[in-house]
């Protein structure tokens, strides 16, 4: 009977890294009405009335405020849509994104 040699198979699983996260940042301006900012925050970012008020006030007092953290594509899409909502009404509302550290 021939001798059979078996070698154990090792499973190598590729290590997948978590995608980098990006912050969506609301930049304060002195022209966009507070109520409109709250409406955009509630509509685009699904914040509650209370959360939207707090984000808006923080941006008003400090100049900027992190709204939420998402993967890059989602963050850029939401920031663009929120900024475009302001432009559509003639306001200089601005949302930006930056990598989270």
From TrEMBL:
Gene field: clpS
Residue ranges constituting the Adaptor protein ClpS core domain according to the UniProt record: 18-96
UniProt protein name: ATP-dependent Clp protease adapter protein ClpS
Superkingdom: Bacteria
Native organism: Mesorhizobium waimense
MF (Gene Ontology): peptidase activity
HAMAP family: ClpS
Keywords: Hydrolase, Protease
Subunit structure: Binds to the N-terminal domain of the chaperone ClpA.
Matching InterPro entries: ClpS, ClpS_core, Ribosomal_bL12_C/ClpS-like
GO biological process, one term: protein catabolic process
Family statement drawn from the similarity comment of this UniProt entry: Belongs to the ClpS family.
